[in-house]
Specification:
Elements (H helix, E strand, L loop, with lengths): L4 E9 L23 H18 L6 E5 L1 H12 L5 H6 L8 H10 L5 H5 L3 H13 L1 H7 L2 H13 L10 H9 L5 H27 L3 E4 L8 H5 L23 H17 L5 E2 L11 H7 L3 E5 H8 L14 H4 L3 E5 L2 E8 L1 H10 L5 H22 L6 E7 L12 H13 L3 E3 L2 H7 L4 E4 L20 H18 L10 H10 L3 H5 L9 H18 L44 E4 L13 E8 L3 E8 L12 E7 L27 E6 L4 E8 L3 E5 L4 E4 L2 E7 H4 L6 E10 L2 E6 L5 E4 L2
Parallel strand pairs: 1-2, 1-8, 1-9, 2-3, 4-5, 5-7, 6-10
Antiparallel strand pairs: 6-7, 11-12, 12-13, 13-19, 14-15, 14-20, 15-16, 16-17, 18-19, 20-21, 20-22
Helix pairs in contact: 1-10, 2-10, 6-7, 8-10, 17-18, 20-21, 21-23
Length: about 750
């Protein structure tokens, strides 16, 4: 018999514990909660996702709700949670302190401005004033109504468009300005009303069979690292580890048991699936998961690849080769029993998470359905007796901020297409496993120790700051162990502080890899949780916990921190490029030195394009201060292909300028016109069509489609930029280097 293609969507809903336990003078929490993201994402992302799904009853999905998220939702619903943003919002305008006003101007635009600020004229007006005139100007010139409106709009903009037909919300959106304290109090009541519907709606849809709700270890810790920080060396043998080895496997069953009981209490049944935090797994954690009673877990295709010693290649369309290896569940065999595991398609998950937001909704939905139809065809062609299961698993909250209308048009187009396509069937993971138990097996000890990020743990351990945080955690854990009289029953404060500190998020933000304008707050929260352990035990707090784990300052040069989707208008929008790679040019030593007209180079990717931005000295003009011709030349390391030299006069015979290149994009900075060429035989260059976009305003921005370069996913390439004047070489950048790029 021929099976439809089964598809399991798993949405992961998570927030770390923003609740501060500290009460020491030096770390005194001015608020109960440090950050507002549970409240704001709660009104924007958790309820609408399942309400939209409910309109398409044939489609079944899985949603993972982390216990630390639910705990905080319950605090806000009860009215006992207050964060600095909420406190400011509920303060009468005339009573706002100078410190609060500075905080409001700095932080009440913490949102993607394209989707959450620009659609609202009054909010956009205030944002433009801050961007163009600066924070100091706002502080000096804003009147009380300006603050009142900003306080209201920051809360309103985070309410999902699905609720905009609510008469009260519609009236506020229409009102636009002159919001009073009374308005803001009612907006806060509306937020709590929406938050109060989240868990009942999930429970109702699970009982109806359309939804499976899963859970995660209590506060989202990386279980393999709790078992043994040395597991970091499985994927990265030369990893620098913390000075003290953290080995507290006994904390794993505690986190699992708390999550299990917490779930049973909220959903009236036992959980079947477990989303291991950061999809991180190792052989050591499997017995604990099995003994707690979980039936299945999920991880990433990179973990499966390492486990099977198989690298998943993709064709030019981005579809997996040897799909039968990825699109099936596996049975992990251990002495304690068996556990099913599914592995997500990393690329399809990333397309939703990072790229489709930059495409028109119907086009994006059609692209995803097209990929699934291509997989369904591969399944039919394989004549496999076994059904295939495509797992698409991703963060269910953060990506929607980048979609117009919070992803509603995209999800509606996607769900309508999937409802109308008989060969594609959406299922919960448990539904599939009950009908088609895993037949492929993996010995438990063979399972790779890794996470969804490159199949390793370097995002959470291995650099100086992350390791220092682990050493602080180890010391606090040992202090708790030296107090056997402090049990969870008679000293819950100490244990809750430990569980919070063991969460993965603090380590995510420390050191290299990720950064935000709230790094210092995450640093402080981590130390406050550790501080809570010592305080609950009546032990002196180590002096180092009064100091930040690391100095939080903006890096100059750094690699890309995530996908980007800049609008190509030559304006260099700061939000569009905040996750881009960055290379300082103007201050570099050498030939360009301080006299360089080009100050800074930014670069990044998504699944559609390569992006480049050049920042110039103020007032610089092409053809005067700056050569008029910019050449982008692509070099493909270790790939056999026809290549040609840089087609300019006076090019120095030195690396990397004397390399041979395969693609060339010439940009005329005076006319903003482009010519694209491909290398031919005998060191020739042949013209090719290009859909590259270029814009020059106060900076130069470029988008070059991967389709122009005709390179498949997971392909390495390198780029050099050469400036020329009337066909004569002038200089190049970055100096003595190539820009490293990986096609996603």
């Amino acid at each position: 018999m021929s099976h439809p293609l089964y598809i399991a969507f798993i949405w992961h809903q998570h927030q770390p514990l923003y609740k501060s336990p500290g009460s020491d003078v030096s770390l005194s929490p001015s608020q109960h909660y440090r950050l507002p993201w549970v409240r704001l994402h709660g009104t924007k992302d958790y309820l609408d996702l399942v309400l939209l799904l409910e309109q398409y009853p044939k489609l079944h999905q899985t949603v993972n709700l982390v216990p630390s998220l639910i705990l905080q939702l319950e605090d806000y619903i009860a009215g006992t949670a207050f964060d600095p943003y909420l406190t400011a919002s509920l303060t009468p305008d005339e009573q706002l302190t100078q410190q609060q006003r500075e905080f409001i101007i700095q932080h009440f635009f913490d949102a993607n401005h394209h989707t959450l600020i620009d659609p609202h004229p009054r909010y956009a007006e205030l944002y433009q004033q801050r961007q163009e005139k600066g924070q100091a100007w706002c502080l000096a010139n804003w009147e009380l109504p300006d603050y009142g409106d900003l306080l209201a709009w920051h809360n309103l903009a985070w309410i999902d468009p699905l609720f905009w037909d609510d008469p009260q919300i519609a009236a506020w959106l229409k009102q636009g300005r002159n919001f009073t304290l009374s308005d803001r109090q009612r907006i806060y009541s509306k937020q709590r009303e929406i938050l109060g519907r989240i868990i009942p709606q999930h429970r109702k849809m699970q009982e109806a069979g359309q939804l499976e709700v899963t859970t995660t270890p209590y506060t989202h810790p990386i279980l393999p690292l709790l078992a043994d920080t040395n597991s970091g060396r499985v994927a990265v043998p030369n990893m620098t580890l913390p000075q003290q080895r953290f080995q507290w496997a006994e904390d794993i069953p505690r986190h699992l048991r708390k999550a299990w009981n917490f779930y049973k209490d909220r959903f009236g049944q036992i959980p079947r699936g477990l989303w291991p935090s950061e999809q991180s797994v190792s052989p050591e954690i499997l017995p604990y998961i099995i003994n707690q009673g979980f039936k299945w877990i999920c991880s990433d295709e990179a973990v499966l690849g390492w486990t099977l010693k198989h690298f998943f290649h993709r064709d030019g369309a981005g579809n997996v080769q040897q799909p039968e290896l990825l699109y099936q569940p596996y049975r992990l065999q251990t002495a304690e029993g068996d556990l099913s595991i599914v592995f997500r398609d990393h690329r399809l998950s990333d397309l939703i998470g990072f790229t489709y937001s930059a495409m028109p909704a119907k086009q994006a939905a059609a692209d995803l359905v097209g990929h699934l139809q291509a997989i369904a065809k591969m399944q039919r062609d394989s004549q496999s007796e076994q059904p295939w299961l495509v797992t698409i698993a991703l963060d269910g909250e953060n990506c929607w901020e980048f979609y117009p209308q919070d992803g509603k048009p995209f999800l509606e187009a996607l769900y309508k297409s999937l409802s109308d396509e008989p060969r594609l069937k959406l299922v919960t993971v448990s539904e599939f496993l009950e009908e088609f138990p895993a037949t492929a097996t993996i010995p438990g000890e063979q399972l790779h120790s890794g996470s969804w990020v490159d199949g390793n743990f370097t995002t959470w351990i291995g650099d100086r700051a992350k390791n220092r945080a682990w050493d602080y955690l180890t010391a606090a854990r040992e202090m708790l162990a030296s107090h056997p009289e402090a049990t969870e029953e008679n000293n819950p404060e100490a244990w809750e502080a430990l569980y919070a500190a063991e969460g993965s998020d603090w380590f995510w933000w420390f050191g290299a890899g990720h950064s935000s304008n709230q790094d210092a707050i995450f640093d402080r929260l981590f130390r406050e949780h550790l501080f809570g352990i010592y305080k609950a035990l009546n032990e002196p707090v180590p002096p180092y916990l009064k100091q930040p784990v690391e100095i939080h300052q903006a890096q100059t040069n750094h690699a890309p921190q995530g996908f980007i989707h800049p609008v190509i208008d030559g304006k260099g929008d700061e939000q569009d490029w905040d996750k881009a790679g960055r290379i300082e040019i103007g201050g570099a030593r050498g030939t360009m030195h301080n006299s360089s007209v080009i100050q800074r180079l930014w670069y990044g990717v998504d699944h559609l394009n390569f992006y480049l931005r050049l920042d110039f000295k103020s007032g610089a003009a092409p053809g005067q201060d700056l050569p008029a011709e910019l050449n982008l030349l692509w070099f493909y390391p270790e790939k056999t292909m026809v290549n040609s030299p840089v087609p300019l006069a006076d090019v120095p015979d030195a690396a990397p300028l004397n390399y041979l290149f395969h693609h060339l994009l010439e940009v005329n900075l005076l006319t903003q016109s482009i010519q694209f060429r491909e290398a031919g035989d005998n060191h020739q260059w042949h013209p090719r069509f290009s859909r590259a976009q270029v814009a020059l305003n106060n900076c130069l921005e470029l988008a070059v489609p991967w389709a122009d370069l005709q390179v498949p996913p997971d392909y390495p390439l390198r780029l050099i930029l050469v400036l020329a004047d009337q066909g004569h070489f002038c200089n190049y950048l970055p100096e003595n280097a190539l820009i490293p790029i990986e096609v996603p």
